[in-house]
């Protein structure tokens, strides 16, 4: 399960916007919102790109992308 609130916080805390994230992933903002709302899934590569760009720790990564 994806934690949308922690994700948005991590993005804004590091001075980026959701438009920036969409650009990193090479997708439009509507596609990013669909992924954030669980309509489609983030790929492993997309998670890797996000974690690398945001410098997320393992703990942050798991709490955002793999919440149970």
Structure notes:
The chain is mainly α and 68 residues long. It is 66% helix and 0% strand. The protein is built from 5 helices and no strands. It has helices at 4-13, 18-25, 29-36, 44-54, 58-65. Helix 1 crosses helix 5. The longest helix has 11 residues, at 44-54. It is globular and about 30 Å long. It starts with a helix and ends with a helix.
- State the separation between the terminal residues, measured CA to CA: 6 Å
**What is the helix fraction of residues, given as a range?**
55-70%
What count of helical segments does DSSP give?
Answer: 5
From the alpha-carbon coordinates, what is the Rg to the nearest angstrom?
11 Å
Largest sheet: none
How many β-strands, per DSSP? 0
- Strand content bin: under 5%
**Which structural category do the helix and sheet elements fall into?**
mainly alpha
Poorly predicted residue ranges:
none
The rough form would be described as: globular
One letter per element, helices H and strands E, the order comes to HHHHH
Query: What is the average per-residue confidence, as pLDDT, rounded to a whole number?
Result: 96
């Amino acid at each position: 399960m994806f934690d949308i609130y922690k994700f948005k916080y991590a993005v804004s805390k590091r001075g980026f916007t959701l438009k920036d994230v969409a650009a990193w992933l090479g997708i439009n903002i509507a596609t990013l919102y669909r992924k954030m709302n669980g309509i489609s899934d983030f790929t492993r590569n997309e998670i890797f790109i996000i974690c690398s760009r945001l410098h997320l720790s393992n703990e942050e990564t798991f709490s955002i992308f793999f919440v149970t």
